[in-house]
Amino acid sequence: MKKRTQAAAGAALAAGLGSLAYPLFFRRWCLTWGARPGEVAGKLPGDELLADAGIVSTRAITIDAPPAAIWPWLVQMGSGRGGVYTYDWIENLFGLNMHSTRQILPQFQDVKEGDEFPLGPGRPAMRVVVCDPERTFTVRVADGNWVWIFALSAEDGQTRLISRNRIARLDKLPARLFYTLVMEPGSLVMERKMLLGIKQRAEDLAREQAA
């Protein structure tokens, strides 16, 4: 019994130290993975849609391809569409019906403002609010509490792809703690995979187009 009590106390202490270490040492890295200081601080089309967001993440990646090879992968994303290029098996544990394709799907390329960006069966859709081809693709969830911005910036034959999430303030402390300590690290795992997935697909497409 004494050993069990000590083990439980040790686990509780480790969890407590971990919950303190994340916001002090790792949270900024988690929320800004891959992004440059200027990209984190910079304004993007759609920021104004949730100006007082409680949580903002800005993550980015360099892609060896022009914006034209990246844009098709962005606009076909979604449940029942092209997927989100991350861990499908995790998405589908939640019934999101995500199946990440490695092909450009022509039927999903003609995107315009007002179109819906499905997240999964029974989930609220996101609506396209900014569609500036090869530059900015911004969607917002129906209740206005989440805005997701993708921005493309060409430089020296490469492209910077920036993904910014703006999420409304969470009023209740338990919800804030859960989101900070669980959802934020989890979102990095999924979004990093997504950005790497888009990079690989776009670079493959650029090579095919150049051949």
Structural commentary:
By secondary structure, this protein is of the alpha+beta class. It has a single domain, classed as START domain (Alpha-D-Glucose-1,6-Bisphosphate, Chain A, domain 4), CATH 3.30.530. 42% of the residues lie in helices and 21% in strands. The protein has five helices and six strands. The chain has a six-stranded antiparallel sheet with strand order 1-6-5-4-3-2, with helices on one face. A hairpin with a 2-residue loop joins strand 5 and strand 6 (158-167). The longest helix has 38 residues, at 173-210.
* N-to-C series of helices and strands: HHEHHEEEEEH
- Described by the principal axes of the CA atoms, the overall outline is globular
C-alpha end-to-end distance = 69 Å
Strand segment count: 6
Number of helices: 5
Binned strand content: 15-25%
Domain module count: 1
Label the structural class.
Answer: alpha+beta
Kindly report the average pLDDT value. Answer: 87
Task: Describe the structure in brief.
With 211 residues, the chain is an alpha+beta fold.
Task: Give the secondary structure arrangement, pairings included.
Layout: H1 2-31, H2 37-41, E1 55-63, H3 67-75, H4 88-93, E2 116-117, E3 126-132, E4 136-141, E5 146-155, E6 158-167, H5 173-210
Antiparallel strand pairs: 1-6, 2-3, 3-4, 4-5, 5-6
Which key terms come to mind for this protein?
single chain, 211 residues, alpha+beta, Alpha-D-Glucose-1,6-Bisphosphate, Chain A, domain 4, six-stranded antiparallel β-sheet, disordered N terminus
